[in-house]
Amino acid sequence: MLTILFDGIAYGMLLFVLASGLAVTLGLMNFVNLAHGAFAMAGGYITVVLVNHLGVPFFASLPIAFVATAAIGVLFERTLYVHVYRKSHLDQVLFTIGLVFMAVAALDYVMGSSQVFVQVPSVLQGQFDLFGIGIGRYRLLIIVICGLLTAALQFILSNTRFGSRLRAAVDDSRVARGLGINVNRVFALTFAFGSGLAGLGGALGVEILGLDPTFPLKFMIYFLIVVTVGGTSSITGPFVASLLLGIGDVAGKYYLPSIGAFVIYTIMIVVLIWRPQGLFTRAASR
Description:
This protein is an all-alpha fold. It contains eleven helices and two strands; from the N terminus they run ααααββααααααα.
């Protein structure tokens, strides 16, 4: 049971890093970016090419995947996304889902349709026992990296000048501009950071989730569930939701293999019946 709990926490941490960029763009920027999984896929393929084909060490490939995906995010944000910020959510959904299908077709043409995995170093392979708990080395790495990223993200958004500028730009961009805040730069940096997180999550998830051109479509629903269950008013909600869903998904597939794939949807339905706005919501102002 403790081993399943550990694996569930690792999976939940990975889900959070994969979905945190969407939580930022949807919850803080009020922009529905269904193409978020495409950036995760880009980070995964960048890591596969660097490690499997170019011989770059795995640990060195992770920051490269983050920076490269963030750069791609800035390029797309400045050339495409900036034109649909003020559009309706329906327009944003149609626009970003179109980008997903274009990314799927492009990666299928360039990389092929076969599922690929990344060659992790031997030090991260296998597992060891600690007080009777089977701890996978690679999953332990995921927990450590994702835990540090979660703490850093929460601190940046809640306790820095950039976080306050982002909230001001979202609440009233015209007033924010009047106060001297460069709203375009704030949105570009936020989108780049969210895209970079998606790319890093995709890089870390290749070994566990596998990678093929349909990755954005297969995991889009998971990202949306995390943000929906957690709520969009903070990062805390998606983080708690990711752990809850990760543990529930792993435990369900282990104890109820015939219906385990539906456990995560059951959790979503129960939580949303109990709290339709998600686990963590912003208090209504008077």
